[in-house]
Amino acid sequence: MTVPGAWYLVLAAVLFGLGATGLLIRRNVLVMFMCVELMLNAVNLTFVTFARLLNDVGGQASVFFVLVVAAAEVVVGLAIIVAMFRRRAAATADDIHALKG
Amino acid sequence: MNAAYVIVALPLAGALILLFGGRRIGDPMSGWLATIASAGSFVATVVVWATMLGMTSSDRTVDKQIFTWIPVGSLHVSFGLQLDPLSIAMALFVTGVGSLIHLYSIGYMKGDPSYPRFFFLLNLFLFSMIVLVLADNYLFSFVGWEGVGFCSYGLVGFWFDRETAAVAAKKAFVTNRVGDFGFMIALFLLFGHFGSFNYSQVLAPLAAGHATLAGSTATAIGLMLFLGAVGKSAQIPLYMWLPDAMEGPTPVSALIHAATMVTAGVYLVARSAPILHFSHSVLWVIAIIGAATLFLSATIACVQDDIKRVLAYSTISQLGYMFLGEGSGDYTAGIYHMIMHAFFKALLFLAAGSVIHALHNEQNMKKMGGLRKYLPVTYPTFIVGYLALAGIPPFDGFWSKEQILDSAWHMSPALWAVGAFTAGLTAYYMSRQVALVWLGQARWKEARPGADGGEHGAEAHEEYSGHGSESLSAEYGGSGQSGVGTHPPEEAHGDGGHVGGDPHESPWVMTFPLIILAVASTIGWLINAPFGGLDFLTKWLAPVFPSTIAPPIHVATGTKWILGIAVTALCFLGLGLGLMAWRKVERPELEPAFLVHGWYIDEGVSAAVLGPLTRMANAFSFVIDAKVVDGAVNGVARLTTGTGRQLRRLQTGYVRNYALGIGIGAAAILFFVALRVGG
């Protein structure tokens, strides 16, 4: 039996929603970071699904770009997080609000 | 006729050289340079005049274009010179008397630290005055008009570190601006009506009888031009600046405030004769203002103690005579008196300067006396000037005054009566001056103990100022008092050995102009003698004042004789009274307070203008400026900071807020796109 394409899309939407919610409500930087990854991968899933449904490799190609960008982003992001941990014990995003107006 | 360019160019070149190189040229040389420039200009004027004499009288108007100044649409204003009998007559005496005063200044200003600046201003003044009289259009004349105003400011305030001088300069300038305002309105009206400023286009058709002018237009233009003349020539109600302008060095008083600048108004009125012809009311206004001024200022002159102030008020009075003559329609008589006045008033001022010089800056006549023995050149020349001003035949003033008064009689016997009475008054106050300065006891000896040299000057000044504050200086709010005023620094008089000794005669550069001017004051009247066909000036000016615009004035010869004898009798009466009365020095009964205060006119003007003006300034300062202007500025600032303060709340610094913002934004865009694309 084949799983209908719509299910993948629903799953992707749920994952994206989880990621977005987590990003908004969690304070731990590491967790927020993982939420971002979750959102990215939800989008990847959508791309792949559509590539499959529409029989177009363009979607899969896009996924590679997203993966590469995500990898680069992880490098930068983790470096920032490490730097933050060096300065203070916890890594709560709300502690860093130097941009407050 | 190309010498005309030289007339203008030489003083300008002199002024420029002195402006940029005056310091390097130094003390006596810059004076000589300026004098040579001025004298060269005079020679060039004589050349032009001689050329003109060779022409037939109808061809004597030549227009010399230099370049087009303002080419706008149909309006072409050029820097151009109009050489005609009137302008050349003016230029002759302006450069002639001007050169003598330049020469005199070399001696008078000797040792002044700003010597080159003085001669720069003097040359610039001469240039401006020449531009004023030689210009071929009203606008270019106005350039010269403003130029003399500026130079007057610079020269009256020449010793600007003295507050009185600075205040007097400001007063002269501001008062002149009121008149300039009238001149400018007249310029606008002229342009509006004629579309041109050129004398040849505006005035020539009127003079030739080819065109006429509506009475109302002529009245408007004439009145506004006359307002300009009133400011420049110190007539009621704008005369107050001239007595105060005596704060300037004495040669300045002679050059600007007697011989040349103040005559600019007389010239302007004479030049505009073709316009004035179409408005009888303006002529009446001119005549009445002239008559009122000549009487009023003569009365004030009767009680002044300052040697220069007497002459200043007499200048205003004599200018009043000129306007009386012009208002009566006898422009030639006005010009005639102007030239005669230039001779004898320059002479009197320069002689007064020589006295001041000899007495080391003493200007109070009550501290003079008995000087005739000590100043053998100044004394006789001063007496010549005195007789000329007093209207004693056969000196200059008698003849020109007679012509004016005859014409005034033709206009109205009342005007004649004012003029005749004032002629007697003139003789009286000048006799008072002569009696106080030259005759009687040598009172300066008490004021000058002798030995303590340089100190005494300051003491005398203090004494004088103290005395003046009771009587005189209140009138001028202290600005006009001259005890500390009108002369070069003490070292200017060079030879310190004479300080404290007897007064000494001035050097030849100062006495030489006196002698020349004394000769001119004695025989100068021959240029327009009313007998034997010697009326050269009338014939010379006839093309400028043709009978179409200046109808000849016929007064019967018998009437002239009677009027002349009456006036002369009054003059002799005044002369005798003055000499008799002022053998004593203290005559308070002859110096009523209201005259000492100049009819309270200065105080009145101060009260009438100063109060409302202060209130208005306060209103502007504390209401308009503080509330409206500052309110607008502060309001804008408050709006900006308020907006910023509210918008600042958006920047929380929390990542989640930003993330939410991004999310909502993205959702909104998606929603919009879906709506547009999907719909």
What does it look like?
- Helix content of chain A is 76%, strand content 0%.
- Chain A has 101 residues and is mainly alpha-helical.
- Chain A has a single domain (5-99), classed as Helix Hairpins (Orthogonal Bundle).
- Chain A contains three helices and no strands.
- The N and C termini of chain B lie far apart (93 Å).
List keywords for this structure.
heterodimer; A: 101 residues; Helix Hairpins; 0% strand; B: 679 residues; mainly alpha; 26 helices; 2 strands
Can you give me a brief rundown of this structure?
The complex is a heterodimer of chains A (101) and B (679). Chain A has 101 residues and is mainly alpha-helical. Chain A is 76% helix and 0% strand.
Write the element-wise H/E pattern of chain B from the N-terminal end onward: HHEEHHHHHHHHHHHHHHHHHHHHHHHH
| Integer average pLDDT of chain A | 87
Q: Sheet with the most strands of chain B?
A: 2 strands, antiparallel
Would you list the SSEs of chain A in sequence order as H and E? HHH
- CATH fold assignment of chain A: Helix Hairpins
Q: What is the first-to-last residue Cα distance of chain B?
A: 93 Å
Low-confidence stretches of chain B: 450-499
Oligomer: heterodimer
Radius of gyration of chain A: 17 Å
Class derived from helix and strand content of chain B = mainly alpha
Q: Under the CATH scheme, which architecture of chain A would be assigned?
A: Orthogonal Bundle
- In DSSP terms, counting alpha (H) and pi (I) runs of 4 or more, how many helices of chain B? 26
Query: Could you give a short account of the major beta sheet of chain A?
Result: none
Q: So how many helices of chain A?
A: 3
Task: Give the strand content of chain B.
Answer: under 5%
- Number of extended strands of chain A: 0
Dominant shape of chain A:
elongated
